[in-house]
Each structure stands twice: as structure tokens, then as C-alpha cells.
Amino acid sequence: MSCTRRLPATALVACMTLVTAAHADDANPLTRMSLEYLMNIEVTTVSKQPERVQNAAAAVYVLTREEIRRSGASTIPDALRLVPGVNVAQINANSWAVSIRGFNSRFANKLLVMIDGRSIYSPLFSGVFWDRHSVPIEEIDRIEVVRGPGGTLWGANAVNGVINIITRHSSETQGQQAEFSVGTEKAGGLSLRQGASIGDEATYRLSAQFDGYNETKLPDGSGANDQWENGQANLRVDWTPTVDDEILIESGYNKVMAGDRHTQPSLSFPYSTLRNGDIDRYGAFVMGRWNHQVNEASEVSLQGFVDHRYMDIDTPIAEEYRTTADLQAQHGIKLGAKTNLTWGAGYRAIFSDIQTSDFSFNVAPEDENTSIYNVFAQASRGFFDDRVELTVGSKIEHHSVSGTEIQPSARAIWNVTPRHAVWTAVSTAARTPSTGEKIGTVRNTVVPPGTPTNPSPLPLVPSIEGDKSLDAERVTAYEAGYHGQISETVSLDVAGFINSYTDLLLDSDIGVSSINTNYGTPFIELPLSINNKAEATTYGLEFSGLWQARDNWRLRAGYAWLHEDIKAPAGAEGNAPEHQLTLQSFYDIDENWRFDTVFRFVDNLENAGADAYLNMDARLSWSPNDSIEVALTGRNLLDSGYLEYGNERADTPLPTASEVDRSVLLTMTMKF
Fold first, then answer.
1. Residue 603 phi/psi, 5° resolution?
2. What is the pLDDT of residue 228?
3. Which H helix or E strand runs over 136?
């Protein structure tokens, strides 16, 4: 399978001839947005109600569409590199490890990711397949990143943070747009969008996108077989039938075709081989949301979605069919002049069929149906002329497999002045075991016979086995922070945390070995049953600052320090960097030209086998009018041919890590 196809030049010329009069863009250039405006951006992920960033009692960061676009990022993981406290490591061309505040892995299982409030968290390995969720940058309104537990409102798996990718209202994307890209890492891309009105009360957006990425290299110089293609189509309709009602309908389809290379265990000599395989994934969803303003003091919302996913992988051989149906209701009401109450309930049903026929990975039984019920309530009250606000709440969630979890929290914020606020929080959250941890068996290693470790005449195979009786992992987090505008040109955000984890699924009990003859060649199977015995404490500091150096030049800096103390077998620590530093520069040369850079330092990953690195991305763009932009982006300009992520624990299948190379990308965007 090849992803080296290029967009025909004739298509580019044909579309350029369709460009007509200038199409005005309402968005101001990023450097002209005042710091006060940025501090007053509304977020909804912290409390499920609109509130200013300045008034949020949490470590929240808002990544705007303009910041993402001018960084040159072409994928969501690359955009998330800009957020302090978020660790992003590219494993190969189509796989990333993304986490918040430690515990990073291919399937980071303590992070909840949503698109417009719709969870994209996969229960198979408790993580996100980032390649199948490629939201076009121009359709993103903002990405809200909440570092710290969010279980009180969002439920299980919002342990270390919540990422909510919020797309633009369709009324903001009227008209037509086409974007073409061609490069070295990203072989080519085509994105088309159409937006229009439906009568006087509704608007819609229809978009299609195709991206193809080239194969990367392994450290020995051979190909990693990790080329991939992603095609998708999305529809969004926004309807306002009355002044008190808003209705949103979204649907989408995507398909991913990719390659990978795994170290495949074998029961015969040489007992492990590098094997190429193909990955096919497709999915479709439909989501609806109704917001109704009952009166000035009361509003209700109802959201539901149905999401179907299919995955077929060769290494290990497995097929997954999964359908998720979700319904959530919420009511917000003002109780008097100073108290706000938000409460709600929800239900989620997950129907999974996982077929495995490979020695290295098995799931039994193949069919699993899961039901999740929840109810939550959160109240906030202002004190001292509303300069102090206290928020308390809890969610009770019942999982048909792992049982009932209670996830309370308490938060307080003190607006010392209109420009300075300090906050603190104590909260708990839970992470339910994945399908693999409950009913899966993973065999990633074969110890050859006749060796000091295995003197027997048969191969020895450690088998990591799931257990349905496992409890959920839990965290209690203590946080404090500061939001402030130091001057007319400088703003600062600081957060510190101490997290205490219990019942972590990082350890195993050694069982009694036996001879397994189910795969043709007999072998000695040594069961390692996952248990809840591991514990951990992590703590750290996160800084984010913004400086308006000149009218046409803005600098944003972020730094994160993390310390992990994990009481578990060797190898559990060292998957996340101790130090991370980001410096982003936005420079408007004149009305038509812009030059933007991003410097990144990431500390070494001791357990994952990746050295520390310093790198830079740069983007030069030219806009002759409001309808056309041409941009040239260079990535990883200071270093090339290094690993961002390598080996890790063997409890999940992991593709072979490949090197990150220097790349260039040429992009043309046209509005009609």
C-alpha cells in the first residue's frame, strides 16, 4: 500500500481559476487580539457551563484555531504539543502517545478526549486511535484542555485531564473553501468545504478531506511500513427554530488505511520476527444536541449519539466491531442571586465483537455488552460580592462490569482583582479497566528453550492475562493555581498539583505454569494475572505565559515539570518527560506576510528509550487577499532521525517505533 501519490497539478490550476472576489474573514489576526480578550474567552469543559478562562478554578488552556493554523500543525497530536503539561510523542507515522501529567503510552488510559462533547475514547485498550480522528484545522473553533481530574462532570477515564475539540458553528463557515497540500512527510492532502443557509433559521457545513502520509524509517535505515491514508466526510447542521431553542446535528464517516511493523513472537526459531501488516479502520457516527432556555434562570440540554467503529489489523490478527449509543441530559438552574446548580444523568451502551485468531493476542469471550449509568450534580456559590466562588459536586457512575464509582470534587477561586485570580481544588476520578485488561491475553515475548532463563526443552511464554474482577484505578488530586494579566502586554498562568493513585493496573501475580498445545507447537505458559496492587504519587508545576512584544509580534511560552514515584515493577516509570519547554512566536511581517516559529525541548524518556531533543518548526505564509493563503511549513528543522518514543511495557501490542525526520509542507487555501 502506498501513500506517495501526489495531487495532480491540473486540479490545482483548475481550482485556482474558480477564485472570484475576496471573501472577508471575520477573524482578527492573532497578534491583534488583546490579552484581555484572550483571558475572557469562554470555556465549557471545566463546569459544563460557559465561563471565562480567568474565572475557571482549574488548570485550563484554550488552543485557538489561529494558534493551531499558524503553528503549521496538520494533525491533532501535533497541535497538542503546544499545550503545557501535555506530552506528545510520535511513535511512527500513524501512531502517537498523548497524555497529561504522566503515564504516557500508545494508549494513554487516563485521558478523556472528546469532539464536541462526544467521547472518542476506545474501551479496547483504554485510549485514542488518533489517526482516525483527523478534524480539519479550519473547522476547529478551539481545543479546550483541562489538566487534572474531570470525573465529577465527565465520568470515568477523565483521570489526569480532559481534551475537548470544539468545532465551529456552521454559520461561521459559509461559502466554499478548498485546501491543497503537498510535502515530504505528508505526501498530499485535499480538503473541500461547502457552507450555506437553509432558510432563515438554519445553516449547514458539508466537508470532505483526504490526507496521505509517507513511510518513515527505522533506526537501521529500513522502511517502517507505516504509511497511511485517511479519508473522511462530515456534515453539521445548526438550527434555531425559536429564540429559546438551538439544535445541532452532526454526522461523519471516515476510513483509515495504514501499514505497521510489529515484533511478532513465534513458537519456533528465531522466536521473534519483524512482520509487516496492514490496518483498516472505518467508522461512522451521528450526534444530536438540543439546548432549550426555559427562562432566564433555567436551561436544559439533551445530547445523544450513535457511533459505529470497525478495525482490522494484521499484527496481531484481530477484528473489532463496536457500536456505542450514548444519551446525556443536563439541567442548569439559578437558585437565588448567588447559587448555580447543574445536574444531569446519562446512559451509555457499548456493544463489542472482537475476533482474534493470533497467538500473541486473544480476547474471550468475543462478544461483550457493557452498560454505564450515571447521575451528577454540581453547585457553585459566590461570596464576598462574588469575588470568591466555591464549587462542589459529585458523579455517581455504575459500570456493568467494574461496579459503582463515586467521583466528588471541591473547587474554589478568589478573584483578587479583575485581572488576578488564585484557585485551588481537591478532586477524585476513576479509570475503568479496558477490554484487554478484563478479558484479554497478551503474549509479546517467547523465551527460547535451552537457555539460562528457560533450560526446559519447550519455549516459555509469559502470558499477561486480564481479570473481570479488577477494580477501577483511582486518583485523588490536590491542585492550586493562578490566572493573571500582569500588565497590558503580559499574562501568566501557573498550576501545581500532587496526585495520589491507588489500585493501578501496573502489576501482576505469577500463576502456575502449564503446557499449552492450542497453537500447534507445545509451549510452557506462565500466566501473569493483572492486579490492582500498584500505587503512585506524581507532582509537578506548569507555567504558561503570553507577551505582546510589539503590535505585530506575540510570544507564548510554556513549561512543565513532572516527577513520578510509581510503586510498581520496573518499567512503569519513565514514559513521560520530566521537563518540557515550548516557545511559540507569531510575527506579522506586514498585512500579507506572516512568519511563525515553534521551539520545543522535551526531556528524555528513560523507560521508553528516547533521548532528550530540541527542535524547531517554522511557517511562512502569504495572503495576497482575503481569499487566498499560501504557506510553507518546515518541521523538525534542528534535528532529524531521532526517536520520540520507543519500547514500553508489554501489556498492549505496540508498533515498532520509527524515526522523526525533517519535513516540509506546502499548503494553499482558497475561499470562494
1. -70, 170
2. 94
3. none
pLDDT digits (tens, 9 = 90+) for 575-585: 899 999 999 99
User: Which residues of the chain register pLDDT less than 50?
Assistant: 1-28, 649-651
pLDDT at residue 14, rounded to an integer: 35
- Using CA atoms, how far apart are residues 134 and 76, in angstroms rounded to an integer? 7
Predicted local distance difference test score (pLDDT) of residue 531: 93
Burial class (CB in 10 A: 0-12, 13-18, 19+), 80: buried
pTM of the model: 0.91
Q: 60-75 as b/e, with b when 16 or more CB fall inside 10 Å?
A: bbbbbbbbbbbbbbbb
Closest CA to 201 of 248, 238, 251: 238
Task: Specify whether the CB–CB gap between 61 and 43 falls below 8 A.
Answer: no
Give the phi and the psi of residue 383 in degrees, each rounded to 5: -135, 160
Any alpha helices (H) in 576-667, and if so which ranges?
A: none
Cβ(640)–Cβ(661) under 8 Å? yes
Tally of CB atoms within 10 A around 297: 12
CA angle, residues 277, 279, 281, in degrees to nearest 5: 170
CA–CA distance, 16 with 488 (Å, rounded to integer): 42
Maximum distance among all alpha carbons in the chain?
A: 79
Which amino acid, residue 276?
N
- In angstroms, the CA 262 to CA 87 distance is 24
**Cα 494 to Cα 546: distance, rounded to the nearest angstrom:** 12
Measured CA to CA in angstroms, residue 493 lies from 1, 301, 668 at distances of 46, 32, 35
- Please report the pLDDT score of residue 664 as a whole number: 96
Q: Which of 661, 653, 657, 609 is nearest to 92 (CA)?
A: 657
170 in Cβ contact with 195 (< 8 Å):
yes
